[in-house]
Each structure stands twice: as structure tokens, then as C-alpha cells.
Amino acid sequence: MHCQCTRGANQAANVIELNTKPARGFTLIEVMIVVAIVAILASVALPSYFDYVRRGQLPEAQAALSDFRVKMEQYYQDNRNYGAANCADAGPPSWSAGTGVLTYGAAQFFTYSCVLSGGGQGYTVTAAGSSGRAIGHDYTINHANARATIQFKAGGAINRPCWLVKGSEC
Question: Please, are residues 107 and 64 in contact by the beta-carbon 8 Å criterion?
Fold first, then answer.
């Protein structure tokens, strides 16, 4: 009898041992919860990241427009006008003389153009977003150093009297 009890006790121990093995892997619910959390984090983080990238590309236009303004003023000091037919007709070699198209050595995200006004006594240089997140951004500067944002975030014409980078107010 004693043997049978021991044998029965060993069988019970084996059953308990089989049931206490840890489960492996994740359940479908756990995986779905993780995917939902990642999706929520991505929906918050990606717009912020894209806005950060966009704001990093806009200073190119501001630097180039300021540089072009200095060059135009230097041209004016030598010639007493900003150009006869086009901006700085005989300007620096980096300018496409006679076309109004300006080239900027560090240009990646914008294209630049210049238009004369007032019989060569005024000009407006425009930077138009041409690639990356800068598409939909247009900035200008003129002979009176009046800066303007013509288009911002592809939101249509807004005509603000400053160069916008983040918000819609100067």
C-alpha cells in the first residue's frame, strides 16, 4: 500500500510539473496593443519631425536673399542703377546675366529670380521653394530691404511683411 501512495504522489507531482511550465510568445491581444501604441506615437512624432525638417530648410532662402541684396547694393554703388534690362546686367559670374535668374552656390531647396522696377531704380528678388519640405514657401526682398513671405506651407498667398519660419505672425 505504501508503494501505491508513493506512486500516486509521484503522478500528482508530474501533473503539477507539466502545468507550471511557462508559456512562450505573445498573445494576439498583446501584439495588437503594442502596434496601437506605436501607431499613436508615430502619428504624434512624424508631423513634428517633418515640421522640424521644413524649418531647417528655410534658412537657405533667407541667407541667399540677404546675400543677393548685398550684391545688388554693391552693383548700385558702381552703376547708379540695379540694371538696365535685368538685375545687375553685368553682375557677378554666378548670376545668369540677362535672364533675371540668380544662382546661389549653396542652393538645394530654393530657386531665385530677380525683377527690376522703376527703370532700374528698384528690384525684387524672390526665393521659391523647389524641393524637399521647402516646396510651397516663397520669400522676397526688395531694394528698400522690405522682406515678405508670399506663400507659407503651401497655404496660399499670405503676404506677411517678414520672413516666416514657424507661425503665421511676424
Answer: yes
